[in-house]
Amino acid sequence: MGADFEKERHRLVKRLEEWGYVKSPSVRAAFLNVPRERFVPDDLRASAYDDAPLPIGHGQTISAPSMIAIMLEEADLGPGENVLEIGTGCGYHAALLAEIVGPDRVVSVERIPALADLARANLAACGYRVEVVVGDGTLGYPPRAPYDCVIATAGAPRIPNAWKEQTRVGGRIVAPVGKSRMNQVLVTARRVSESKWEVREGTACAFVPMIGAEGWKA
Length: 218
Ligand code: SAH
What we know:
alpha/beta; binds S-adenosyl-L-homocysteine
């Protein structure tokens, strides 16, 4: 079974490259190294390498690999960079981030305690050193700020101020932002100086809602 998953993983990465989602060697290597089948629910393992979102319990979903690839390319990360993820879910995206920036450089905030536990177990089982914090990620995570990148995997009505304050000059925020709870556009905001941001709107997307003080109501 293990060998089959590896073959499927290579096939998926090849397709993501052909379709133009995976561009950089570091994103490619991350997708080849993280065993997605170990982050999805057992009964969905056969679908682990479909390019589709999958349910992970508690009404939440893990994004399609192509969507994650778009976000990782937008994030433009290098080794050693300090990353805050909002919305840990099953921990898959956090593992990819850790592959790119290295161990102990990723902290991820999750509002549902059971999912934080699941992510911790998945990440530890695969050997990833990522800090998972339970809380409202719309407030960021001040103890490890400033960040080179804040990357959100749930859709907020706007970019929370806390994320801007906790991003260093030269840093990026990659987040789905939208006027409705279920539909967003992917926004990449780069802090070019203390007070100036370059904001780019990318692809349309449909993430689960970001629920919190600077997000949507529960
Ligand atoms: N990156 C995840 C995708 C998880 S789906 C993965 O690879 O599996 C989005 C997650 O965001 C859900 O688990 C949801 O509970 C969480 N979430 C929603 N609002 C949040 C908030 N304010 N703070 C932290 N997590 C939040």
